[in-house]
Amino acid sequence: MPPHAILIAEDLTPSDVTQLPAQIAGIGLAFSAPTAHSSILARSLGLPLVCGIGEELMEVEVGRPAIIDGHQGRILIDPTEEDLKHYSDARRRRLQRQAFAAAHAHETAITRDGIHIPVYANANTEEDVYARRGQGADGIGLLRTEYLFQERSAPPGVESQTALYRRLAADMDNQPLTIRALDVGGDKFMAYASPQIEANPFLGQRGSRFLLARPDLLRDQFRAILRTARGLPASAVIRFMLPMISTVKELEDVRRLLTEVQIDENKRANGEATGATIAIGVLVEVPAAALLAERLARWVDFFSVGTNDLAQYTLASDRTNSAVAALADPLHPAVLQLIARTAYAAKVFDIPISLCGEMAGDVSAIPLLLGLGVTELSAPLPTVPRVKQTIRECDMIQCRQLAESALRCNDADDVRALLAIGVAR
Ligand code: PEP
Ligand code: MG
């Protein structure tokens, strides 16, 4: 494959994306969608990806010159001299902005009016956790643990998870490490843990639902977290985040299970200090959870909004289906209402509310998210410096005005138009 190759395919699995050769400069997919897990992984590698182009993409012959524009979602085949100039100028300007943000990446992100917004990174691999330092992230806001153990045929068990979490925790320097409970189902299946074949896997046994049906997996993971915490100072923070909670009862059931494990581990430790602080949180990604956020908040130490799923469930559009995926737009006012509602509950109960969907890396959306009341962000790794830089340019009063206007819009395009005016930038 030549350098700067653009890979064209009908679709890719998440594990295909992690095995791509280094020459790949971008990816064009006939199908799939921006928040499918293959797209999320490409974004975390900093690879431009355009998806849902249609079957005709497969007719492009090997070797044709092309430009991939991940911002506009376009692939230009046989670009003209004018296109080449336009894109190389745009690229130069973008690289300049990135270089400026990277030079300040290690400074805290404080708005113009003095509000500190911690910016974490999303991690899909062990290396991502270590790489957060270079990007200036204030911690890990989402560790997708299912990817850490996806090549196994047997469950990872307590020992190997403890060994891995200890390595990660040792690198954190008191920054929060947010470990998401194994999120199986939807478009993620493991050889050792897969729900029955389902007609609608995204509406099926996913996340915490699956873990309640397989409590052995949840117990082992939490046991490993407790054992990791035990060796750490009390100032260290490990957050354990529960995906796909839709009812208060599910949360109560999971918490009961976690308490049982904790009692058991305390007995086993025989009076040894508990070590790091463990915070338990809910990944708010089902509209029911957002609507009942105030009831959930009493049971948790933090919220994080998963807009990838929240958008697909709010707009009833499969995030991997290119025919409808454009509908699953997190800027839709219905999704924004749910974020605002969750943020309100977090404020009432005085707990932090992060947002860890891909939306957190969309710099144009950041003033809006702050205005909606989100207090922390967790973004795809390569976007962290620009997210921090954008926060520094925000003013909370303007952000709140922007959020109020966005909540009154009819659809996502109106919100996007509002953001383009750049009220708060
Ligand atoms: C989300 O749904 O927004 C999220 C962060 O989780 P995932 O993308 O892994 O489903
Ligand atoms: Mg999710």
Question: Overview of this structure, please?
Answer:
- The protein has 16 helices and 13 strands.
- By secondary structure, it is α/β, with parallel strands linked by helices.
- The chain has an eight-stranded parallel beta barrel, surrounded by four helices. A three-stranded parallel β-sheet has the order 1-2-3. It has a two-stranded antiparallel ribbon with strand order 4-5.
- The longest helix is centred in the first third of the chain and has 23 residues, at 81-103.
- The chain is globular.
- Phosphoenolpyruvate (PEP) binds next to strand 7 and helix 11.
- Magnesium ion binds at residues 243, 285, 306, 308-309.
pLDDT < 50 stretches:
none
Bound small molecules, by name, code or SMILES, are: phosphoenolpyruvate, magnesium ion
Spatially, the strands of the biggest sheet line up as 6-7-8-9-10-11-12-13
Task: State the share of residues found in helices, binned by percent.
Answer: 40-55%
SSE run: EHEHEEEHEHEHEHHEHEHHEHHEHEHHH
Number of strands: 13
Distance between the first and last residues' Cα: 42 Å
Structural class given helices, strands, pairing? alpha/beta
Radius of gyration: 21 Å
- Global outline: globular
Largest sheet properties: 8 strands, parallel, barrel
Number of helices: 16
The portion of residues forming beta strands comes to: 5-15%
Averaged pLDDT, please? 95
Key terms for this structure?
eight-stranded parallel beta barrel; three-stranded parallel beta sheet; 16 helices; 41% helix; binds phosphoenolpyruvate; binds magnesium ion
Write the layout of secondary structure elements.
Elements (H helix, E strand, L loop, with lengths): L4 E5 L4 H5 L5 E6 L7 H8 L4 E2 L15 E4 L4 E4 L3 H23 L15 E5 L2 H6 L8 E5 L12 H14 L6 E4 L26 H7 L1 H16 L6 E6 L5 H22 L7 E8 L2 H5 L1 H5 L4 E4 L1 H8 L18 H16 L4 E3 L10 H7 L3 E5 L3 H9 L3 H12 L4 H10 L4
Helix pairs in contact: 3-14, 5-7, 6-7, 7-8, 13-15, 15-16
The structure holds phosphoenolpyruvate and magnesium ion.
Phosphoenolpyruvate binds next to β7 and α11.
